[in-house]
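#structure-requests
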Amino acid sequence: MGDVRPGFERVLLERHLTTLRRVPAIVIPYRGDAKRRLASSHRAALALAMLGDVVEAAGQVGRVLVVTDDASVVPPGVEVVDDPGQGLAAAVAAALDLVDGHALVVNADLPAATPDALRRLAAAGPALVEAADGTTNALSLPDPSAFAPLYGPGSADRFRAHAGLDTVRISELELDVDSDADLERLGARLGARTRALLAVPA
């Protein structure tokens, strides 16, 4: 009987390590000045609120890395990666260099994101979520080295061609915010921080 408990403990440890390997790291690139089509009166505050909603969802799923040139905007408990200042792709690559294993790349303007939506993205394996305009809202990269600097108009097609990523339909991650009209369209699906901000008179 003396060998049973050590063997059982080894099994538990192996299961724990396997589970950890399956938990993705979530990379969130953030630039507060990127939402120029939002009303100028609350543009900066909205960008921060949306970031907070995405970080809140991501923090319930795995390790969170926010890439930014302003560490003061990052919520507590989140890893900050310095934005090299060479565009979105370079920002994402800087964070992926710090990730060993499965990574999700999730844009900061997805305030309807939920932990379940992120888990569904991770479970899809190599995959992407496409925005309505053909750009890329989120990536699932079991092998982060598959990432390439392909952002911009039509980027979803380029990511599919480059890395063979599947397209997954996850409505919470398809609903990006580029304008005030997008905020109105999302309505009650917005995250708590964004909803609270919009409830305050301008």
